[in-house]
Structure formats: C-alpha cells, structure tokens
Write a structure and sequence with these properties.
heterodimer; A: alpha+beta; OB fold (Dihydrolipoamide Acetyltransferase, E2P); 6-stranded antiparallel beta sheet; 3-stranded antiparallel beta sheet; 9 strands; B: alpha+beta; Gyrase A, domain 2; Alpha-Beta Plaits; Elongation Factor Tu (Ef-tu), domain 3; 3 domains; 6-stranded antiparallel barrel; 9 helices
C-alpha cells in the first residue's frame, strides 16, 4: 500500500509530520497514521500557550475502533491549535497534511529524531511487512 | 503462525486491513468501519466468520449430552431451529456462549473462534458416559453472515439457488438449501441486531459464495470486517466473549439469566447458578452514555463519583448509528439503575457517565 509522504516534511517514527514555517512548525499526523486509525471521530488537543515535550503525548485521536496517543515530535510552546477539528474530524482522514493540521508550535530546541520523506516511507514499508 | 480462513486471499485482493483476532488473521475493515456499519444497518453487509468453531454432535445421547453441557433447554429447540446457550464452569463462570442448531439427526454447535480449543476440550472431558460422537467441522465448512434489512430480498434473488422462499424462514430457523448450485445450510441468525442470515457450506466453495453474495442486487452488498461486526453487536448490546462475558462472570451478572433454565434438569454449573440466582448478584452489566467529554474503552476503570474504584468498562466506542460515545460496564447493583451516575477513568481523568437502557439500538429481527 502506497501512502502520501510529501517531500517537504519531516516525520517522527510515531507517525506525526512536521512542517517548518519560518521559526515555527506545524504538526499533524501522517497519511499512514490516518489510514491505520480509520475514521477519526474525536480529538483532544492542548491549549494555546501550553508546552509540549518531545516524545511525550500531547493529545489523543479516537476512531470507532481505538484510541491513540499523539506524540510530540519536538518540544516547544503551542502558538495555535486547529480548533475546527473539535467539531469536524474528517480533515484528519481526508487532508492530513492540509486542513487536518493540529498544532502550530514555537520549538524550544529538543527534538525527536525526525526522518525525511524517503526514510519515513521506508520505515512505513518495513512496518507493513 | 496465525490461522487463516478459506477467504484470506479474497480479503487481501479486496484491500482489507488484516488484524489478529483470537489467533486468526482476519479483516478488520475494507472501506472503513463506519461505512460498513451503516451498510449493514441500512442495506446489507457480508461477513466472513469462518474463524468461528463448528462442532457436530450426534448419536443416541446427543440431546442429553448437550443438556448436560449448556444452560438453555436443548429439548425446546425444535428440529430446524437454533437457540442461544451458555457453557458454564461448575462455579457458574461462563466458558463460552454458543448457538445450537437442531439439524436432522445431529446438532451443530457454533462457538467463538478464540475458544475453539478450550470448548473442544471441555466437550471431550464431559462426553464420557454419553453415547455421542463429536466432530469438529470447523475446517471443512466455511461460514458467512449476510446481514441487513435487504438481506432477505437479495438472498431470494440469488442465481442457481433454492432461496426464492427464504422469506418464510422464521427467526432462528435453519434450512438446507441450494445456493449458487451448491448445498448450503442457511439460518436466520446473526450478531448485528438486524435481520439476516448465517450460511454454512463446504469450504472449497468459499470464494464462489463470497463473490456471489457480494454481487447480489447489482453489487448491493458491502463486505464488512470485524470492526463493523463489533460496533454493530455493541449497539445491539450482544455480549462478546472476553469483554461482557468470561469465566469470572456469571450469567446473572451479564443479564443472561434468561438463558439459564434451572428447571430443565441437571447441567454443569446448575447448583452454583441456582445459589447465585437465589442470593442475588452484587454487580451487574449496564449500558451507559458519557455525560462528560471522552470515549470509554474496554478495560477502563469505573469509579463512584466519590472516587472509589468499583468496576470496569467491558466495551465502549462512539456509536456510529446513535452518533455519540456509549459503553457497557460492570458496576455494583446500587449503580445499575437507569439514570445512575459514575465516573469512567479516561487516561487517568474521571469523566462522568450515566446509565441508560440497553440495548442502545433496538434489534430489527423479523419474527
């Protein structure tokens, strides 16, 4: 199964993506992650002004079948949250790299090891085996 | 090595996502759980349930043997009908829940996939002294479920079949038919809360039946995975072994007292069950809705609103039909009446929940 992994993003091994925008980053979950979860029906995200810590859970997505933690790919302060997702989670499945974005964060330095698109695609292919 | 049904390759070819379930590699979804769920509620869904166990019981003492093994009254299941029963340990804990089909000269007992080996062993242990032959037909026969309000109409239109009059098959009736030119047992049974059929046939014909049933009504039938099977049975509050029932739970706690026929004569667990019935239970299965924000899942703790841990969630999910998170839990009897409130611990946080009527979705069986 081929998943969309845009070349301009970096990826965590827990299936979050990171897009650099100036000195801030935007975070969401990958096409593989949304596919593995199935239709997302509920999401919990942190508040603006809170901090997230690399490798620690920052929120939760739930589908009919399962509840999954979201893990912070890096540490930093949350400067914006996609609150539209609270009432309509469909973009997480339909447009995970666009309207399905979750957080905008000002990084504070610490980061998980992030993969480029090719390395992440290879990582996913390995899991799928 | 996980076991595979005769339809394993068909599932892969249809792009199913496969998961482990009770030692089996099974499709959890094809197009999406919610879409498959709605297909079974509104039209028709097809499920591969060949992983379930199928034991044939025959011989002069077949009925007496089964009467000894199960809590229901096997003598009250007429030829050509099926009935729901429980296997219990002597202390009253539930070994498995089963469906018993009364066929000419034999009974077929359908058991849960994860319990196949355990149930087989339990039957063998107690067969001594009964003139009975037990045969495991699980491998030789495949089993599909066609469920939904259009199932009857679609099945009646199958080609090379004798199912034109399938509409006259009563609820829980079972009949020998021809389907797609092959012999098949068709029973009006299921696990979705909808009208529908379970179909048994030689495993060699599995793909002919699978693709043939999907094609009915100009491809009106949706392939459904275990995800939708779970959400459908959950809304109808049908017990799932390992969740609502197991060996630490007795039938009265699970609100399955109606399956226990204490006056039918002796059977395994009868003394203990009679004592439990007389003493009353201290906990009971309830259905609940979330008052606070959050989704309860199987295994989450239940606390009194004062914080005291008193129970656990057996199943929980956002109900696709009702559009809100619901759950089932074991709670002390003083918390089990409609409107009672307790907290479900969702990721270490108490979230308020309120007891509601079961089932969440009123089954639409054709009786």
């Amino acid at each position: 199964m081929a998943y969309n992994t845009p070349a301009d993003l970096r990826y965590s091994k827990t299936h979050e993506w990171v897009r650099q925008e100036g000195d801030e980053v935007v975070i969401g979950i990958t096409d593989y992650a949304q596919h593995a979860l199935g239709d997302v029906v509920y999401i919990e995200l942190p508040a603006v002004g809170s901090t997230i810590t690399a490798g620690e859970p920052f929120g939760v997505v739930e589908s009919v079948k399962a509840s999954s933690d979201l893990y912070a790919p890096l540490s930093g302060e949350v400067v914006a949250v996609n609150t539209d997702l609270e009432s309509d989670q469909a973009p997480i499945n339909n447009d995970p790299y666009g309207a399905g974005w979750m957080l905008r964060v000002r990084p504070s330095g610490a980061s998980e090891e992030l993969l480029d698109a090719a390395a992440y695609a290879a990582f996913v292919a390995e899991i799928e085996q | 090595m996980l076991k595979r049904t005769p339809l394993y390759n068909a599932h892969l070819a249809m792009g199913a996502r496969m998961v482990e379930f009770g030692g089996w590699e099974m499709p959890v979804q094809y197009r999406g759980i919610i879409e498959e769920h709605h297909a079974a509620r509104n039209r028709a869904g097809l499920f591969d349930i060949s992983h379930m166990g199928r034991f044939m019981v025959r011989g002069p003492h077949a009925e007496g043997f089964l009467q000894h093994m199960v809590t229901c009254n096997v003598a009250a299941i007429p030829l050509g009908h099926a009935g729901y029963g429980l296997l219990c340990r002597p202390h009253g804990g539930i070994v498995d829940d089963v469906f018993i089909y009364h066929l000419p000269d034999e009974f077929m007992v359908v058991v849960n996939a994860a319990n196949r080996a355990k149930d087989w062993e339990w039957f063998q242990q107690h067969a001594t002294g009964f003139d009975v032959e037990i045969e495991d037909r699980s491998e030789r026969w495949a089993m599909l479920a066609l469920q939904g309000p259009q199932a009857e109409h679609l099945l009646a239109g199958a080609e090379d079949s004798t199912t034109a009059e399938i509409g006259s098959l009563p609820f829980h009736g079972v009949a020998m038919t021809t389907l797609f030119g092959q012999n098949a047992l068709i029973a009006r049974t299921g696990y979705t809360g909808e009208d529908g059929f379970e179909i048994f046939f030689e495993a060699a014909h599995a793909e002919r039946f699978w693709y043939g049933l999907l094609a009915l009504g100009d491809n009106a039938v949706q392939a459904c995975g275990l995800g939708a099977r779970d959400s459908l049975r959950f809304e109808a509050c049908l017990a799932l072994y390992g969740h609502e029932i197991d060996e630490t739970i007795n039938p009265y706690e699970a609100r399955l007292g109606w399956v226990v026929k204490l006056d039918k004569g002796d059977f395994i667990g009868r003394d203990a069950l009679q004592a439990i019935e007389q003493a009353g239970v201290s906990r009971r299965l309830v259905g609940f809705e979330m008052v606070g924000k959050g989704i309860a899942r199987g295994g989450y703790q239940v606390h009194r609103v004062t914080g005291e841990p008193v129970g656990f969630v057996t199943s929980g999910m956002p109900s696709p039909t009702l559009g809100r998170p619901l759950g089932m839990a074991y709670v002390p009897t003083d918390l089990s009446s409609e409107g009672s409130e307790f907290d479900v611990m969702v990721r270490e946080r108490p979230v308020r929940a309120r007891v509601v009527k079961m089932p969440f979705y009123k089954p639409r069986y054709k009786r």
